[in-house]
Design goal:
The chain has 246 residues and is mainly alpha-helical. It has 14 helices and 4 strands. Helix content is 60%, strand content 8%. Strands 1-2 form a two-stranded antiparallel ribbon. Strands 3-4 form a two-stranded antiparallel sheet. The chain starts with a strand and ends with a helix.
Amino acid sequence: MVELQINTTQNVNINFIAASVGERILAYVIDAIIKIAYVVGFGYIIFEGFGFDETFESLDGWSQNAVVAVFLLPVLFYTLTLESIFEGQTLGKRVMRIKVVKIDGYQASFPDFLIRWSLRAIDLLVFGIVAIISIVTSKKSQRLGDMTAGTSVITLKNNVNISHTILEELKEDYKPTFPNVIRLSDNDARIIKDTFVRARAARDYETLKKLRTKVMEVVEIKEIETSDIQFIDTILKDYNYYTQGM
């Protein structure tokens, strides 16, 4: 089990567990089965069900290649498309509960997925041996595509989940104090809460002070009349108040 320590732009360390080689291989196998099912099933419907085979055979070589290329586009772009839509997950990754993330703590974006996807041909050389060697020998369990894109694949089985880490219990009559908290993203709120919980438990008042200063800067709050702990606690509650219905 490889533990990834992600250092965010706020100089906060967050620990994740890297997905194992076995989990990544199983996710790949599931995705491969889905691709094969598409080729076999859809191919049978088009060529046999609609009788396109005779038309296909009557085409010249270039036209046949063009038809095959169009038919295989969903297979070719399967990983890139689904990771972009499902924020770092294909169907296989969703089943295995693993996900692609940036090693700087932020959600991977389309350019990151594109870089990973473009290097799959190299990673999958010799039946994927290149990727396996890279993952096993890399400190952050990265294949070549991950190293280039600055990403890694983590497991979600240790309950590291944004929706779980940022939730705060609110009373029915709760009244928010700082409406500007909507400037924060879910990832910002997760980082703030993770840092807040650890610093408060360790009585690390210096970190709490730095966190308060950073939050005030991002949320554009000039002055506060409460302690650092009360302020950050209010920020988290306000964020949940404004976003719980979104």
